[in-house]
Amino acid sequence: MSVVQIFPRPEEPSAQALSVSPVVEPEASTTAPEALAGRPVAADSLPVSEPYPLDRAFHAMLSRLTGGISPLALSLAWLDWSSHLAAAPQRQVEMSRNVLRDMGQFVEAAAHATSQKPWSVIAPQGRDRRFRGPEWEAAPFNLLAQAFLLGERWWHDATTGVRGVSHANEAIVEFSMRQMLDMLAPSNFAATNPQVLEKAFRSGGENFVFGWQNWCSDLMRLLSAARPAGDEQFIVGETVAASPGKVVYRNELIELIQYQPTTAQVRPEPILIVPAWIMKYYILDLSPQNSLVKYLTSQGFTVFAISWRNPDAKDRDVAFDDYRKLGVMAALDMIGRILPGRNTHALGYCLGGTLLSIAAAAMARDGDKRLCTITLLAAQTDFTEAGELTLFINESQVAFLEDLMWQRGYLDTTQMAGAFQLLRSNELIWSRLSHDYLMGEGAPPSDLMAWNADATRLPFRMHSEYLRKLFLGNDLAEGRYRVEDKSVSLSDIHAPMFVVGTLADHVAPWRSVYKIHYQVDADVTFVLTSGGHNAGVVAAPDESGHSYQVLIKAADAPYVGPDEWLKLAPRVEGSWWPEWAEWLAARSGSPCDPPQIGGGDLDGLPDAPGDYVHT
Question: How many angstroms separate the CA atoms of 339 and 603, rounded?
Answer without folding.
Answer: 20
